[in-house]
């Protein structure tokens, strides 16, 4: 057992031999093809491991700059990183030498037939440091680790190995050679002196594993000037021998090969030239390769390493082509059959529609409307056009349903929005009369009557196409939302009544042939974008010749609005519409439905309820509160008197629609004159409608019919002047 130069370690030393002068951090193991004899090993035993020993600096045996390794049998051993012979000396091991990653230019890189890659070199400045210095003598590359010289067989920078053979030193030096049993990895390594172990006249190979300076990759990367891995495509990894840390070594990245210790030393590997798993077209890429499957119709031929059409594939393609051809032929035949069937079906539909057109007297209608002007000419629509306009009469397009049919919203090809009424089944005897009425209605041009654009006669029942009215019905405004007051001021109610009465009076007396609506009700009074009144739904209307005063028909109408005389006799006259209009006036006064639930929970007729209240003198009790607030007593009495006249049981006692129209215009003109007089006297007047902030429909204004004075006139007319103005001066 060797003693330390200054003091002996106090721990128990099992056995320590003289150290072989070898750089343990570079040369980690020797592997011989022959079997080597065993050697007794030693370790410091006062602590079980390096970790425990390093906690007590006073008893820690390893010198400065030395490495500590745990022994497999317990304790620990010390190793220098350089030529220092004893890692247990107090002055410590010498620090590792610096590494130069950039050799000088024009270095000799071969000796005989052997290539000498960097970091190894033969000349000063051509190797990384002196550990990697080799000598070239007589064409042989020699390695001199300190105790002798060895002939270098090969140098590998990829595996980090140096293979040597043929020990060339003298016998005395050979006796200093140290060899031990193989470690847990199966490698032999230098540990202590053994005499007469080898016959050096025999040839054998020794594989020496080496590493760059004794530093980890993490620390080495911090000093880029001495960092050994110079190639862009290189990587660093730490190297150990058993439990002994050696340093770090460089390798080319995956997909590259060459020397990672020089710039551009790692070159891309062409994987397509080497055996690979690509069964298709191989394309080399930096560090890898891309495999593209063989084109359609070809397969990979492993014997030729290329894509080719195989016989089996060819037969399959041929069979596929035949099958595809047969399938396409079948599809073409099927499509042909479908096209012919559609044409046959469309032909049948066309004949059916033509038959309906003739049955619905379409030829007669064409003659009746042939003389109309081009601008107002009623159009006869095709069923196909109306199908497209209503999306095949989709249920989501339904605007409403009534006793005479269903109304759909449609968009024509010219982007006009229309209401399309699809009537219920009618008797053949009514078709002629229907056509005559369509011809008459198409000629009605009145601002308060819904415009009839045309009809379609290609369906089982005729279809009527009207202009679309966007703001709903008077019934909805009165009864669907009772909180709406702003749009139902007393002035608005008077205006709506005047406009509706004017339209009905026009139908009764001003049209070329008198037309009785026969279904006058608040749900048939529509309001357009400007809340202008529009009379609609002439499905039950009847026309009379000029010498007729009434017509006997099947009783049609809506309960609550139905004329009791017409109900009992079946005789339809213009006074029937007057009675129904009287019910609308009561709705405007009371804001109650024509059939409503009274205080006792029973159904009651609004017309009888009004007449009864008028007779009992309790009119104020049944009127809408807003009417009582905005109308004066004189106005209420006048319109109540007119309503009572319209609701008389006998039709002969009722006024005509023209008389109703005149009295309503007179009443409204009188109210407007009175408000204008107040304005001239007081200089201010309440707005006729609600304030703009409370009225979302500010365009709904009575000023349409309020221009009753000329420019420059002032003062108030007398009642006689107002009456004359209402009869002759009011615009229609």
UniProtKB/TrEMBL annotation:
This is Protein kinase domain-containing protein. It comes from Panicum hallii var. hallii. It comes from the Eukaryota. ATP binds at residue 422. It is a single-pass type I membrane protein. GO terms for biological process: cell surface receptor signaling pathway. GO terms for cellular component: plasma membrane. SUPFAM superfamilies: Growth factor receptor domain, Protein kinase-like (PK-like). Its main location: membrane. GO terms for molecular function: ATP binding; calcium ion binding; polysaccharide binding; protein serine/threonine kinase activity.
